Amino acid sequence: MEPRANFSVLHRACALVVALCTLHLSVMLLFYLRSTGDESEHAPPSPGNFTLRTLRKGHSVSTSTMTSTSTMTSTMTSTSTAIPTTQALEKCPDTSPLLVGPRNVNFSQTIDLNEMRQDPKVSVGGRYKPRECVSLQKVALIIPFRHREEHMKHWLYYLHPFLQRQQLDYGVYVIEQDGEDTFNRAKLMNVGYAEALKEYDYDCFIFSDVDIIPLDDRNTYRCFDQPRHLAVSMDKFGFRLPYNQYFGGVSAMSKEQYLKVNGFPNNYWGWGGEDDDIYNRVTFRGMSVSRPDGVVGRCKMIQHVRDNKNEPNPQRFDRIARTRQTMDSDGINSLTYRVVRTEKDQLFTKITVDIGKP
Ligand SMILES: *[C@@H]1O[C@H](CO)[C@@H](O)[C@H](O)[C@H]1NC(C)=O
Ligand SMILES: *[C@@H]1O[C@H](CO)[C@@H](O)[C@H](O)[C@H]1NC(C)=O
Ligand SMILES: [Mn+2]
């Protein structure tokens, strides 16, 4: 009797070991599958909109995150071949000698723009070009806007000198949504593109929130050989990207890149998702996102409460899941709006537009 009892105990022990091994293996397998399915594995935690990860599993992402600045400086300089030879001025260098690097900003200061308005180098409408050389690019800065006068002051106060140190030929376009209907950031950016081109032969467009101030002028506000994300290291996200596919805040696209993605969506009313749609457009057209490194790309956002009539858009997740189907028919080719008025300040051109409502 004794050996048989022993054998049965042994048998049970073995079965238990086998069961445990199986459990262990399946748990490992589960973890393995989850980590390979999740492309943003190494991304910092996303700020609450996790749904992005699931929606994105379907397509591959080719973000060249945090590409070093040295590889960037050589790009896009070939676009400036159209400079008249009769002009005595030479092309500006790839890297401006006027850069000063990191600088702090202080949003508690009271801003007086009048001194800046007297600067003879800036011409009406917020236009500037360096006297010392011919800029490599003609850059339009597009700022979607409504009820943020105080932020605008800070933006102008810090950005004009910043852009001048970068030796850019630039113009500042504040695109204000008329009326009090739900805000539409991306549509205003499309309007800015169209309106700026009516004034000057811009070849690069910077789309910037009014409340984001870059801290380092080595973060050049110009275009690169791929669409460029500029606000890569924001204080509100702990000076890092909130997630790998983040394309919000400030971005740059050449005219060619912009047309390749049919501009931006016109139907994102309210907060969120439009920047993810643009990101999708970029990847679906075979482009990738270029970025400065996290030190050069530092910037600060002026803290504020959420605006009225800019509540989170409940449709945004459905929309960003369908970018591929909608991008050819919804964009710069379907843009309609009506200019209500144009104001020419010394430091900016403000265009107030009726863009309709949801
Ligand atoms: C910012 O400006 C305010 C008002 O001028 C001043 O009191 C404060 O010390 C400044 N803060 C920093 C960090 O310089
Ligand atoms: C996710 O959050 C980022 C950062 O706040 C925002 O720019 C983006 O539009 C959000 N996307 C969605 C789908 O809510
Ligand atoms: Mn903001």
Automatic annotation (TrEMBL):
Q: Where in the cell is it found?
A: Golgi apparatus membrane
Going by the entry's taxonomy, the superkingdom of the source organism is recorded as Eukaryota
Classify the protein's membrane topology as the record does. Single-pass type II membrane protein
Domain Galactosyltransferase N-terminal, by residue range, is 92-223
Q: Which reaction(s) are listed as its catalytic activity?
A: N-acetyl-D-glucosamine + UDP-alpha-D-galactose = beta-D-galactosyl-(1->4)-N-acetyl-D-glucosamine + UDP + H(+)
This entry's Gene Ontology molecular function terms read: beta-N-acetylglucosaminylglycopeptide beta-1,4-galactosyltransferase activity; cytoskeletal protein binding; metal ion binding; N-acetyllactosamine synthase activity
Could you confirm whether the keyword rRNA processing appears in this record? Answer: no
Q: Please list the cofactors this protein needs.
A: Mn(2+)
Enumerate the spans annotated as Galactosyltransferase C-terminal domain. Answer: 228-304
Q: One matching Pfam family, short form? A: Glyco_transf_7N
Transmembrane portions of the chain: 12-33
> Which Gene3D superfamilies does the entry mention?
Spore Coat Polysaccharide Biosynthesis Protein SpsA, Chain A
Main subcellular localization, coarse class?
A: Golgi
- Which keywords label this protein? Disulfide bond, Glycoprotein, Glycosyltransferase, Golgi apparatus, Manganese, Membrane, Metal-binding, Signal-anchor, Transferase, Transmembrane, Transmembrane helix
One GO cellular component, as annotated: Golgi membrane
Q: Where is this region: Disordered?
A: 58-77
EC numbers listed for it are 2.4.1.-
Q: Give me any GO biological process, just one.
A: carbohydrate metabolic process
Q: Where is the composition biased (Low complexity)?
A: 62-77
The pathway to which it is assigned is: Protein modification; protein glycosylation
PANTHER family reported in the protein's UniProt record = BETA-1,4-GALACTOSYLTRANSFERASE (PTHR19300), BETA-1,4-GALACTOSYLTRANSFERASE 1 (PTHR19300:SF5)
Query: Which family does the similarity line name?
Result: Belongs to the glycosyltransferase 7 family.
Q: What does this protein do?
A: Responsible for the synthesis of complex-type N-linked oligosaccharides in many glycoproteins as well as the carbohydrate moieties of glycolipids.
**Listed name of the protein:** Beta-1,4-galactosyltransferase
Which species is this record about? Answer: Pygocentrus nattereri
Organism placement in taxonomy: Eukaryota, Metazoa, Chordata, Craniata, Vertebrata
